[in-house]
Specification:
single chain, about 325 residues, mainly beta, seven-stranded antiparallel β-sheet, about 50% strand, globular, WD40_repeat_CS, WD-repeat protein, repeat, WD40_repeat_dom_sf, WD40/YVTN_repeat-like_dom_sf
């Protein structure tokens, strides 16, 4: 697979990503080849390549008052939230904040349906949010926080249905394609696999040398990829987790984001700045294209149809959204400015 660069949205187009943070989170999400959601200062923006313009979806600088009241939920008004992470799936957007906030919004409705502070401790950042389905088919929002807890919210009632505690800050969670297993990573070299319903740890993945920040599941549900501060991404076959089956090296920094295409053919991993690596899974991850850019990386996302890769760049001068398109007549990616 070769990605061919097809465009860059400039600061003049109001899509710059000026986020001055110690470590950038996943602040970009593609729901189609033509629809991308990303952060711009205190706004979540929707960029449409068909219309050639961006539109504000959510402004978190102003007070946020939930439009709905759900019995049993801890919804409350929030103000001036600094977004730390976000996810978009099936019409629902969930965003976490640097003070332990969680905000949920239906994209086809005005306002937010749910907002709360799920953690009030010092350094209570919501490190990651994930939108998934339970084995029974109900949508849920899963949060990972610095207070060492993973929380699961029902996406209809927005009641916290479960919370699991761990001995270290949780930086990332991801749910297996069959919605049965939960990968849990944080301020530990060990990564955990837990039952997604009970939170019971069923496996301990050992091999990384530092803290972990990202994970992703291959669509076949057998391979889990984990990204670590030790500058590596490890691949694990969950049928035998005694050791990783491959170690993929980054160039300079921690592996902060990992994504698979929906067909499982390619995997992208991003460092904090400058480098995104795309691996061909059919070559046993032996074939790789490296995208060398300038600036801190605010997020990566493949379009659901696998035709495009989007990269958010957070830089005062070169802040932008990059789009790379898949070339089918070569089995690699091409980059053209």
């Amino acid at each position: 697979m070769r990605l061919r660069g097809t465009g860059m949205l400039s600061i003049d187009e109001c899509i710059n990503l000026l986020i001055f943070l110690f470590q950038l989170r996943n602040l970009l999400w593609s729901t189609s080849k033509h629809d991308v959601y990303l952060m711009q200062n205190y706004s979540v923006m929707h960029w449409s390549s068909l219309l050639g313009k961006g539109e504000e979806v959510l402004n978190v600088a102003r007070p946020l008052a939930p439009t709905m009241k759900y019995p049993g939920s801890a919804s409350q008004a929030l103000s001036r939230v600094q977004i730390s992470t976000m996810a978009v799936r099936d019409g629902l957007m969930a965003a976490g904040g640097f003070q332990g906030e969680l905000i949920c919004k239906y994209l086809n409705q005005p306002g937010v349906v749910f907002a709360t502070k799920i953690s009030n401790g010092e350094n209570a950042i919501t490190n990651a949010v994930d939108i998934s389905y339970s084995p029974t088919g109900s949508m849920r929002v899963i949060t990972a926080n610095n207070d060492q807890q993973v929380r699961i919210f029902d996406a209809k009632s927005f009641v916290c249905t479960n919370h699991y505690a761990f001995p270290w800050s949780v930086n990332n969670t991801s749910v297996s394609p069959d919605d049965k297993l939960l990968a849990i990573l944080g301020d530990s070299p060990e990564c955990l696999l837990a039952d997604a319903q009970s939170g019971k740890v069923v496996s301990n993945l050992k091999g990384h040398l530092d803290y972990s920040f990202s994970s992703a599941w291959h669509p076949d549900g057998r391979i889990l990829a984990t990204g670590n501060q030790d500058t590596t991404c490890r691949l694990w076959d969950i049928r035998n987790t005694s050791q990783s089956i491959a170690v993929l090296k980054g160039r300079m920094g921690a592996i902060r984001a990992i994504k698979f295409t929906s067909d499982g053919r390619f995997m992208a991993m991003a460092e904090p700045a400058d480098f995104v690596h795309i691996f061909d899974t059919q070559s046993d991850y032996g074939t790789c294209q490296e995208i060398d850019l300038f600036g801190e990386i605010a997020g990566i996302s493949f379009s659901p149809d696998t035709e495009a890769l989007f990269i958010g760049v957070a830089d005062r001068t070169y802040g932008s959204l990059l789009e790379f398109n898949r070339k089918h007549y070569h089995h690699y990616l091409d980059y053209v400015l």
